[in-house]
Amino acid sequence: MKVLFAGTPAVAVPSLERLVADGHEIVAVLTREDAPTGRKRVPTPSPVAARAAELGLPLIHANRIDGAAQDAIRRAAPDVAAIVAYGGLVPAEALAIPRHGWVNLHFSLLPAWRGAAPVQHAIIHGDEVTGAVTFALEEGLDTGPIFGTLTEAIGPDDTAGGLLGRLAVGGGVLLAQTLAGIDSGRLVPVPQSGDVSHAPKLGLQDGRVDWSQPALAIRRRINGTTPEPGAWTTWNGQRLKVGPVRPEAGELGLAPGEVMIVPGRSPQVLVGTGSHAVRLDSVQPAGKKLMSAADWARGLGGAPASAGTATKVVFE
Predict the structure, then answer these.
(1) What is the pTM of this model?
(2) How much is the CA Rg of the chain, to the nearest whole Å?
(3) Phi, psi angles (nearest 5°) of residue 117
(4) Range list of β-strands (E), 62-179
């Protein structure tokens, strides 16, 4: 069966690699155009484009599946299209090109978390289990019938990046198996059932930490926005990116956002919340690299790094 693969970010690369490894004939790879990156804004191929070039696969670059892109897809003559985080809508005209349609790998247990950021929302909202599905793409937002499903537990330390990495690998296997089942005629999709929830794309403000929230909610917010769009707070009028936190037993008498440095060989940085304190492990000040919270605390002018009392530092 001839396959058109559509995808753009790194999370789609394991699926492409799995399809190639399993012997599927990739007639073309559709990905977004080179985007400027870094301080010098150098045009850079997408991770999928770079890997496809390494594999010697023909590329179709398009930010929109317009008439020109559709003509390129027709020339490739795929039997089916597999899509993983391409980053653009597939119009009805394009949906009709492959005789077996388009198969979408989505990183949630649909109909839960339809949309662009399913893994992030699952963590932020405290889900204990998530997964991935393959479904028949249609014009509605993630509404098509389901071909296959895998499940994955969400641990308390899981970040969106780590969990998505696991799902990307398992999802690649699921996608390859789905295409094999379609090719053999054994696999028939079934309609979605259950409660619908939505997972819109997260922006910068979604990563802002509200220290008046309970510690568990803060932990989930930080985990769910790590690494993108990034969790942050403000200190001295500047944005300070923060890494994952761990709840600490006891109230410690810290007000929300108030910082305490606990002395020792490896000083601990504790922050008050709406319930009990959390331990902060890493931060990234504006214009600097990621560093340990202890190293950041040592560099604070006048901060009593060995006093074990609340400092003058308060996150906003």
Answers:
(1) 0.93
(2) 23
(3) -130, 60
(4) 80-84, 102-106, 129-136, 146-153
